[in-house]
Amino acid sequence: MFILNTNADYRRPLEPADAAILGLDAAAGVERHLSFRDQHAETPLVSLPALAAETGVAAIHLKDEGQRLGLGSFKALGGAYAVIRLVLEEAEARLGRPVDMPELYSPDIRKIAGTMTFACATDGNHGRSVAQGAELVGARAAIFVHAGVSDERVAAIARFGAAMIRVAGSYDDSVKEAARVADERNWTIVSDTSWPGYERIPGLVMQGYTALVREALRQMPAPPTHVFIQSGVGGIAAAVAGHLAIMLGERRPVFAVVDPARAACLFETARAGRPVTVPHGEPTVMAMLECYEPSLVAWRILSRVADAFMTVGEEDAVAVMRRLANPLGTDPAVVAGESGGVGLAGFLKAVADPEVKAALSIGAESRILLVNTEGATDPGKYQEIVGLSPCEVVR
């Protein structure tokens, strides 16, 4: 399914609070924050010239977040960043003086962090980031996971010392339970989705994602003309689209949001012109995108700066994992998890449909930017789908 953005807010300026969260000064602050983080390095921008030639465009670049901060997904930029920011803010309030990143591991800051507990719900990757951030500063983490989260993903979060809490039902059920328990126990909820009255912390999570946009623009020979980004609740899509709109203004690229057909909350929200909760159905293989209710902040941004919304099916996600593992010509192999290559799946569907291709003005001069949002965060599942282990693909 495919629709253009026809909402009343389309192409209106971002609200001042959203523009501040995703603006140039905030993004520069994120990069400064990252300079103090162990394991920080810019992730690679992979060029796929053979695929570009096959699809009739000038260039395809894939920002590969499968190596980000040792966690294997772009989420490493969000949850941990928000946790660290919140600890520094709490330290400033208690100590009565400015506190910055160089003091993060000092005894005074760690003592304060040790009194704090951070909670979130997760499909896997966001919870891993929150747990890593809490461990870095000496805080506690409580991570809520729904029934569909694999034991392998749970173990990957637990290794950071987080308390793991299983919740019956879906991701959205785990979000509600995490918020309820956190309120009861005076924990700080660090969610990557927002709801009425809860926007600032999800905004900080999204702010962390701006780092990958700045890196990609530095790495590309020329700015993209088109961007296809997969979306769950909308955080990554809104962060990328919003920051690009601020940075590039009228030169910003055409931006398409890609949903799983089985969890198309943003697509249906765009079609209705208001936030929509879609009914739960059969689970999607795109586990990190299996969300049925959009983030209010993300929708507010995307309603203004996204140009189109589309869905892809189960077979599309699987096919693109295999395509990236077994690339055309001399294109490099890329390890993309079940949700990692969904933006590419959306692009491939778009160029295969003459009407969609024309609606998005894709042509021989188009430069496509995509994000591999996760590597093989569940290696067993990856090998089952692709037929090769992540190590075999890299070799």
Automatic annotation (TrEMBL):
Listed GO molecular functions? diaminopropionate ammonia-lyase activity; pyridoxal phosphate binding
Cofactor (UniProt): pyridoxal 5'-phosphate
Going by the entry's taxonomy, the superkingdom of the source organism is recorded as: Bacteria
InterPro entries given in the database record? DiNH2opropionate_NH3_lyase, TrpB-like_PALP, TrpB-like_PALP_sf
Record's keyword terms, sorted: Lyase, Pyridoxal phosphate
- NCBIfam families, from UniProt? diampropi_NH3ly, PRK08206.1
- What PANTHER family does the database record attribute to this sequence? DIAMINOPROPIONATE AMMONIA-LYASE, PTHR42937
This chain belongs to the protein called: Diaminopropionate ammonia-lyase
* Organism name: Sinorhizobium americanum
Question: Which gene is transcribed and translated to give this protein?
Answer: dpaL
